[in-house]
Amino acid sequence: MPISLSPQMMRQIIMDHYDNPQHKHEPNDANKYESIHMDSANCIDDIIVYVKEDNGVVTDCFFNGVACTISTASTDIMCGLVIGKTCEEALYIIDQYKKMIHEEEYDDSVLDEAIVFMNTSKQAARIRCATIGWDGLEEIIHHHHK
Amino acid sequence: MFDVKKIRQDFPMLRNNTLMQGKPLVFLDNASTTFKPDVVINDITKYLTEETSNSHRGDYDLCFTVDTKIKNTRKHIAEFLNADEDEIVFTTGATNSLNTIAFGYGYKNLSRGDEILVSVEEHASNLLPWFRLQELVGVVVKFIPLDEKGRITLNNVKKAVTSKTKLISIAHVSNVLGYKVDMKEICKYAHEKGILVSCDGAQSVPHTKIDVKDMDVDFLSFSAHKMCGPTGIGALYAKKEILEKMDPFSLGGGMNVTFHQDATYKCLPAPAKFEAGTLNVEGIYGFDAAIQYIQSIGIDNIEKYEQELKAYAVEKMKKVPGIVIYNEESEAGIITFNIKGVFSQDLATFLNSRGIAARSGQHCAKILPDFLNELSTVRASFYMYTTKEEIDALVEALMKGGDFLDAYFA
Q1: What CATH number matches the domain at A7-145, 2.60.40.10, 3.40.1390.10, 3.90.1010.10, 2.130.10.10?
Q2: pTM for this prediction
Q3: Could you read off the pLDDT of A7-20 as tens digits, one per residue?
Q4: Residue B343 and residue A68: Cβ atoms within 8 Å?
């Protein structure tokens, strides 16, 4: 994805994932998933992230709950990015995303649409919204690997 | 003569051209906290640079100076509320005051099955202490129904009162909707039934004349930082005979007369009994200056001006396409709103990008969204130094419409 996305395109990507999230739904067979409850004292965000892993590969990832525009879109994009990836690859993607959010050097080649959140640090109060789902997924994978 | 331009010159945060996101700061979050005038800053500095010492226990002049300051501040707060000096307890703020009521009065004097009435628009600090008391003692927390606008009325209080009701604890002014409750008529009714009334004054004491004797309220809680004072200091007013029925829930130095190896101890009389540990002395210096500053402007002038601002803001904001205002008619200088199709926090973030400080979310009143049928809202709140130009800046930003995610890409 080119870094020269216009603000209009970035907004459109966020709004598409907010209005029509692909990976936000009720769990059908929750017992087959690892899950984590994430909430925020600063926003209304109150979500559960679900992950299914087979032989070290993330075979499914989705979330459900109440979430703002930024957390919904960022978590939805995250789910799309990690499905089909190995856990190591998923952790690498999460790491690069967080580096981007915190204005460190990062590898944009693995972030695809997630780069629309590259300027989040300018609105520091929203960093938690942009990372809540990512923190949850990271914790599940780390926990699972212990 | 009330002159907002002159008042603004008293506040470094206002006169020093403070910027936010590179834009002139428009501070519309005064229900959250307020700016401090020079007189407050100077008096805190005076304590820190010229008069530092502990209270209570010195044999030297500096301690006497500090003790006198604390005594005088207590007196000034009492005069401000028409209370007596020994009815004013220093706390760390309204939250701590409300906890002192719950655990100092409630834990000792209430028992299983006793009912406490609150409302769904209460701040967390006027709900969670009572929920905890329900866990510890078995009291039952019940809710006064709000009317269709979101007001607490005497009629609805009457509907909620039963023979088991022992205490009503409600905000004088809601921090979300800004309706002012007629505490006097509620106290009169409650007292006829032998019920005590606790008033959360965090949003009223800074903005409106309070006369605790006329209101006949039993407890009043408030914070200094919402009235131009520093954070970490506030007060609890309670009637003297009620303070005497309360146990301290924090114990230690400064509140005891004697203690012995057999675990017996004797407390100082109220209010010292409730002020264990070293007080926030610089906070008290600042609190005193803040009260005097408000009195120099005149609390009635402040209230009148804020009502003028509120009417002006409602009139202007109603013209913003897609706006929903939840509390057009409420008395306080608080406007709670949303723009259709825009998530409230995105709206507040957008305002931040324009240098405008407003608050989104549930404003610590996490049960109220069920009543409003909205997950969260944006709140703009005014104080004596807010200008119509600042409200114009808010309206102009809101008029932009449609581009609320721009804050992320600018």
Answers
A1: 3.90.1010.10
A2: 0.90
A3: 888 889 999 999 99
A4: yes
